[in-house]
Amino acid sequence: MPRMERWPERIGAVYLPVADTVEVAEDLASPSEVPLPPKPGCYALSLRWTATQRNTPGFVGTLRVEPMLPRVRFSADLYRDQPTVHLLADPSGALRELRSPSDEPADTDGRIPIYPRLDYHSYLRGIGARLSSSTPEGSSGTVVLEFEEFVYGYENEVLKEMFVGGFTQVPKQRLRFVLAPTATPGLYSGTAHGDMSKDGTVSIRWISPNYRHAHVRLHTLEGAVAPPAEVQGVTLATIFADAGWELSVTDGGTFPLPAELSHVNINNCWGFFDMRKLLTSVPGFDPAELDSVWRVHLVAIPAKLGCQRGRMLESVEVDGVSLARLGAMTYSHDGYPSGEAPDGMGGSHYDAAADQQHHQVPRAYLRSAAHELGHAFNQVHQVDDKGEPDNSIMTPSPELAEVLGTAGTFPDQINLAFNDRVMGHLRHLPDPAVRPGAMSAFLTADSLFTKAPEAADVAWLEQLELSVELASDRVTLGEPTTLSWTLTNRGRNAVSAPAELTVESSLARVSITDPRGMIRFMRPAEVQSCLRVSMAPLEPDASVRGSTTLFWGPDGFGFELTGRHLVEVIVLWELAGVPVAVSGRRVVFVFYPTTWEENEVAALLLDPDVGKAVAFGDLTSFERAAQRIRQAEEIAPTHPAIQALRRLGLTQQPR
Question: Same structural domain for residues 195 and 285?
Answer without folding.
Answer: no
